[in-house]
Amino acid sequence: LSFSGAWSCCLGRPPVGSGGDKSPGTVAGRRSDAKQERLSVDVIIAEGVPRDDAESVAKLASSVGIFACVAEPLADPTTLWRFWSARERNLDAAKAMYQEAIAWRKSFDMRSLMETHGEGEAYSADGNRTSDDPSKWAWRRCQK
């Protein structure tokens, strides 16, 4: 999945996790000066979500506080589609599953975990990559 196409508006933004809403079930690092536009169905389809499911994925994104140009690993359209599909297309159940996943992710010291098992990219304390470019992933697993 490449974020360089439809999500190119995210490139050059400050790293995710550098501020913003950190309440459970929302994406940390939303820029307060960024437009809070709903993730469009066209973008969702362009990122690989089936057309029949795109409107529901947009509703899930909106319900958990994900808007256009959020560069966070669990915020991309295909990942949201997986949450929605895993809960048999039930919006409330998908939202709860997403919120639980975000809480679980924040409960670990992701930075230490990633440094223990790999190298090449920094992570913030809340588990988000500190990269300025969400379209590239530099972390590589290695033996230390």
Q: Layout of helices and strands, plus pairs?
A:
Layout: H1 41-46, H2 51-63, H3 77-86, H4 91-107, H5 110-117, E1 118-119, E2 140-141
Antiparallel strand pairs: 1-2
Helix pairs in contact: 2-3, 2-4, 3-4
Structure report:
The protein starts with 40 loop residues before the first helix and ends with a strand. It has five helices and two strands. It has 144 residues and is an all-alpha fold. The longest helix has 17 residues. The chain is globular and about 45 Å long.
Label this structure with key terms.
mainly alpha; two-stranded antiparallel ribbon; disordered N terminus
Determine the structural class based on helices, strands and strand pairing: mainly alpha
Radius of gyration: 15 Å
Q: Low-confidence segments, ≥5 residues, pLDDT <50?
A: 1-34
Number of helices: 5
**Average of per-residue pLDDT values:** 75
In helices, the fraction of residues equals 25-40%
Question: What summary fits the major beta sheet?
Answer: 2 strands, antiparallel
Distance between the amino and carboxyl termini: 29 Å
Specify the overall morphology. globular
Please provide the ordered H/E string of secondary-structure elements.
Answer: HHHHHEE
Q: Provide the β-strand percentage band.
A: under 5%
- Placed side by side, the strands forming the largest sheet appear as 1-2
Q: How many strands appear in the DSSP assignment?
A: 2
